[in-house]
Write a structure and sequence with these properties.
Layout: H1 13-19, H2 21-56, H3 64-88, H4 94-103, H5 109-114, H6 124-142, H7 161-175, H8 183-190, H9 193-196, E1 199-205, E2 215-216, E3 223-228, E4 232-238, E5 245-248, E6 264-268, E7 273-278, E8 284-290, E9 296-299, E10 304-305, E11 310-318, E12 323-332, E13 353-356, E14 367-375, E15 385-394, E16 399-401, E17 405-408, H10 417-431, H11 436-446, H12 450-453, H13 457-476, H14 480-499, H15 505-521, H16 526-554, H17 558-565, E18 569-571, H18 573-588, H19 592-607, E19 609-611, H20 623-653, H21 657-666, H22 700-719, H23 727-751, H24 755-786, H25 794-802, H26 828-843, H27 850-862
Parallel strand pairs: 3-8, 18-19
Antiparallel strand pairs: 1-2, 1-4, 4-6, 5-7, 7-8, 9-11, 10-11, 11-14, 12-13, 12-15, 15-16, 15-17
Helix pairs in contact: 1-6, 2-3, 2-4, 2-7, 10-11, 10-14, 11-13, 13-14, 15-16, 15-19, 16-18, 18-19, 20-22, 20-24, 22-23, 23-24, 26-27
Length: 863
């Protein structure tokens, strides 16, 4: 047996006791702090309270008799606190600190180090065990740390008087003055001499809106003093009347004349000048007034208008202390109005519009940029020339105004010809009541043949009643209230004619297409085009869902489907989305003629369209099958992007890796997934190219764009995901949400050219997509089990029997088929094994860059 002595190990008992030297001293100091605080806390609280009273100057505000009584009470309390301290004071011993430190360690190693072996001293084995025990205890003692002092005083001070004294002292430090403690000497020396002697106090209080603190003039030395305009100066004189006098030139007012000087003087700083206090301990200051600058406001750009007529007018405002309020004044620019038709006569008097400006609710108002947001579509001046004037006000009632800006008051545009005509006559009615007769004649002419211009008899009847009412009121007088009521009715009629109240999805879709065509012809803005395009998308989605429900209810058989295939067109939901994306792209590029042609083609196809999401000749799929197929496409696209990023990373750090792979393949090695599609022998591809993505390291921009497009497609699929309200459906949505966040991270990494991080995020996105597909498959399976026999189309039942939850065709006995986009080849497991072997081989090559080897090791840990 080999025995180890103490000098063979650093953790000997002597070393263990030396290592606790500083922790022991700090623990002992903590015990001293506990003893002192527990003994002297009444005295400390009393001292802090007295200092707070003196620093706040409370002794100067009470009679001398009260001060004398307070001094006696404080003295008695100090004696009592000192007696309390002497009774509770004890001197802590070093053994107490040692015991406390030892109790904080497991097994009390310090006591064990001080012990000696009692028996077995002559036995080598027993001595060796004892030395091993001592070394183990020394190691534990070496890890000792000082025990914090326990300064809790709740049991001894249940009313928290110490905290009250501390709070008073901190308040005195902030709002009081240390110099006031010196006044105690006058109290003790001369008794009432201070009360009768000449003393003074003064304060300079700036306006509250400046945010500047109040200055105590008694603490300020003579010299220059900068004060904001409007600062209130308050001076108080004590003692013999006339011993102190005040002279100032900052208020701009003449000095009061009289034999008796004022005891209290208040005045405001309105100019630069001097303040002087003449007499014992008098002072003088040269005051420089800081003027309050006028606010500024300006219009930051042209107004932006949404498709529904809401206006956003940007403006910038600033002030040295902050803007308090603002408003916009809008008045009719009569000189710029085209005085024709209903605008030829003089308008009725109408007051200017006053709209409050929106200011920041929280934050700095000294310099900000905001938007005036309002909808003036129903105002009589909508789409007419106006002048806009912005004005802001600061806290000192100073005002700034912008020059009148000429602009056309934005309002909603109506693309339906009949609705536009109604709105124009409404404008003429609000322009002047004298247009009532002409207005009725024009509306009668417009609606002469109602069958040609109205889509519903209800709208035609409403207009006829309005015309009769206008004619009657024009004959007997049109009051302001009736004028407003008729204008509101005309507005509601125009909205009905523009948007319609159609309940059928096909009619809504046709209506959206017509409005979009009219907008393109009339030169609508980009915002209006985007709003109408979004409306067309929503109407098309509603129509597709309605057509699917109708086909499911009718239960069309295979003969009916075959009979209609020659007369209808096959189109998927993705085809529709691509066509509408193409139309919107053409409109954004200004190619309106091509966009109108594409929109007409879309209309023709939608007229005879048949909804299908499968192969030509198959019936329509359920929403779950459509979502599953879309997720499968997204997963496949994400896998391709991940492979592309991996090839770029590999080519960047090891440009000769492709040559080694090709040599290995010439010796019988099967190409892995990363090698497929990148063979030098492929037609139309040169060695070193990256599947059409450019040279290695140069294709990240293209990959990032594809990643962004895939994220947008996943967001659209997530919005159409079925199974809401079920646990499986919620799990699928959560998984897709994680996949979307991972795709966003991958896109950001690709744009930063960080391929390693991008590949990690892409792997997380693929894993989340798989989880979402599994959850969606479980939801579909539960829905199928819950449905009664005989429900659904026959073709849908056949597809449910022949496909797995991922939409792949199954083979015999439920085995996976070998056809379809998602099917693997017969040697899938062999290829996976070879790929893992290749990754292991490359991760062990020391010549490869460390970042690539680190990524390969993470791949092995994951898979």
């Amino acid at each position: 047996m080999t025995l180890f002595t103490a000098k063979d190990d650093d953790h000997s008992p002597e070393q263990g006791l030396k290592s606790i030297r500083w922790p022991l001293r700090l623990t002992w100091a903590g015990i001293w702090a506990e003893v002192l605080v527990q003994a002297f806390w009444p005295l400390i609280a009393l001292v802090l309270s007295v200092l707070a009273v003196l620093m706040l100057g409370l002794h100067d505000t009470v009679p001398m008799s009260v001060v004398t009584g307070a001094v006696v009470a404080v003295t008695l309390a100090a004696v009592g606190a000192l007696v309390y301290a002497l009774r509770h004071l004890r001197i802590p011993r070093r053994i107490e600190a040692l015991t406390r430190l030892d109790a904080s360690l497991p097994g009390r190693p310090i006591q064990a180090l001080m012990d000696v072996q009692a028996i077995g001293t002559g036995d080598d084995a027993s001595a060796a065990v004892w030395q091993a025990h001592q070394r183990r205890m020394a190691a534990r003692a070496a890890a000792a740390q000082a025990v914090p002092a326990d300064l809790r005083m709740a049991r001894r001070d249940p009313f928290a008087l110490r905290y009250v004294a501390l709070l008073a002292f901190v308040t005195a430090l902030v709002f009081g003055s240390v110099l006031r403690i010196g006044s105690v000497a006058g109290l003790t020396a001369g008794g009432g001499a201070l009360a009768s002697g000449p003393v003074w106090e003064g304060w300079a209080e700036p306006p509250r809106y400046t945010g500047k603190p109040t200055l105590y003039l008694s603490d300020l030395a003579e010299g220059p003093l900068n004060l904001p305009a409007g600062t209130l100066i308050t001076l108080r004189m004590y003692g013999e009347v006339g011993a102190l006098s005040v002279s100032e030139t900052v208020s701009g007012q003449p000095q009061p004349e009289g034999d008796t000087p004022a005891i209290v003087q208040d005045f405001k700083v309105s100019q630069s000048g001097q303040i002087a206090i003449d007499g014992p301990n008098g002072r003088a200051w040269d005051v420089t007034m800081l003027p309050d600058a006028k606010p500024q406001v300006e219009i930051a750009g042209p107004p932006e208008v949404t498709a529904l007529g809401e206006m956003q007018l940007p403006f910038v405002a600033r002030d040295d202390y902050g803007v308090e309020a603002g408003e916009a004044r809008i008045d009719l620019d009569l000189a710029a109005v085209d005085r024709r038709y209903g605008l030829a006569i003089d308008p009725d008097p109408r007051a200017e519009m006053i709209v409050p400006l929106s200011l920041p609710i929280a934050g700095d108002r000294r310099d900000f940029e905001e938007n005036l947001i309002d909808d003036f579509s129903k105002h009589p001046w909508a789409n007419l020339p106006v002048t806009v004037t912005l004005s802001v006000l600061d806290a000192s009632e100073q005002q700034a105004t912008t020059p009148p800006t000429q602009m056309t008051l934005p309002g909603r545009r109506f693309f339906d010809p009949l609705a536009a005509a109604v709105i124009e006559q409404r404008r003429d009615l609000l322009w002047a009541k004298g247009n009532a007769d002409t207005l009725a004649q024009v509306l009668r002419a417009v609606s002469y043949r109602p069958a040609d211009v109205f889509r519903s008899d209800t709208a035609a009847l409403r207009l006829r009643r309005l015309i009769e009412r206008i004619e009657i009121r024009a004959r007997y007088g049109l009051s302001d209230e009736v004028q407003t009521e008729i204008a509101d009715d005309l507005w509601d009629l125009a909205i009905e004619l523009e948007e319609g109240v159609l309940a059928d999805a096909l009619d809504r879709m046709r209506r959206a297409q017509e409005r979009l065509q009219e907008a393109m012809k009339n030169g609508a803005s980009d915002a209006e085009i985007a709003e109408l395009m979004e409306e067309l998308r929503r109407a098309t989605d509603d129509y597709m869902r309605q057509l699917q429900r109708q086909q499911a209810q009718e239960g069309e058989n295979g003969d009916q489907q075959q009979g209609q295939q020659g007369e209808t067109m096959q189109m998927t939901q993705d085809d529709l989305q691509r066509m509408m994306d193409r139309i919107q792209e053409l409109m954004e590029q200004g190619r309106m003629a091509e966009a109108e042609q594409a929109l007409r083609e879309l209309q023709e196809m939608m007229e005879n369209m048949r909804v299908t999401q499968g192969q030509p000749g198959e019936g329509g799929q359920s929403e779950g099958e459509q979502a599953m197929e879309g997720l499968a496409d997204s997963l496949r696209e994400q896998q391709e992007l991940s492979d592309q990023a991996f090839r770029d990373l590999q080519d960047r750090f090891n440009p000769n890796a492709d040559d080694g792979q090709q040599q290995g393949q010439g010796q019988g090695q099967q190409p892995g997934p990363q090698q497929e599609g990148n063979q030098p022998g492929q037609p139309g591809q040169q060695p070193g190219q990256n599947n059409g993505q450019g040279e290695p390291g140069q294709g990240q921009g293209s990959i990032a764009d594809r990643q962004q497009a895939l994220r947008d497609e996943l967001r659209r699929q997530e919005g159409r995901l079925p199974g809401g309200g079920t646990p499986e459906g919620d799990a699928a949505r959560d998984a897709l949400d994680r996949a979307g966040r991972a795709m966003d991270g991958a896109e950001e990494a690709l744009r930063r050219d960080d391929l390693a991080e991008a590949i990690d995020n892409q792997s997380q996105a693929m894993e989340a997509l798989r989880e979402g597909m599994r959850a969606l498959g479980e939801a579909m399976e539960q829905d199928q089990q819950a449905s009664e026999p005989g429900q659904g189309t026959a073709q849908g039942n056949r597809r449910a029997e022949n496909t797995d939850p991922l939409g792949r065709e199954q083979g015999a006995n439920g085995a996976q088929g070998s056809e379809g986009d998602l099917a693997l080849d017969n040697d899938a497991y062999g290829r996976a094994r070879e790929l893992l072997d290749e990754i292991r081989r490359r991760s062990g090559e020391a010549t490869r860059p460390e970042v690539e080897r680190d990524y390969l090791r993470r791949l092995l840990d994951r898979f």
